[in-house]
Design brief:
Elements (H helix, E strand, L loop, with lengths): L4 H13 L2 H17 L8 H13 L2 H19 L5
Length: 83
């Protein structure tokens, strides 16, 4: 099965959602809210995370790397093995 837009979009979204920097910044915002006692700051962690994910999605270099990895993975599973 060749890689289509749905497969590529899913791979891009998962890659962006799993980026350590995106997660770390959101965790730091929530941790700062808890440590400083600024409870109003805690709910801002989720929109910050979402913004970082969107920014990562629109990174052309990262999208190219993820797309290349998806296509390489698909090609590797389709190659017949010779004895």
């Amino acid at each position: 099965m060749p890689a289509n837009r749905r497969v590529l979009a899913r791979a891009l979204i998962l890659n962006a959602a799993r980026q350590p920097l995106n997660i770390a910044i959101a965790v730091c915002v929530v941790a700062a809210a808890l440590l400083l006692g600024a409870w109003w700051l805690a709910p801002i962690g989720l929109p910050v995370y979402a913004g970082m994910v969107v920014a990562t999605l629109f990174d052309g270099d990262r999208a190219e790397r993820v797309g290349r990895a998806v296509y390489d993975k698909r090609r590797a599973t389709k190659r017949p093995k010779h004895d």
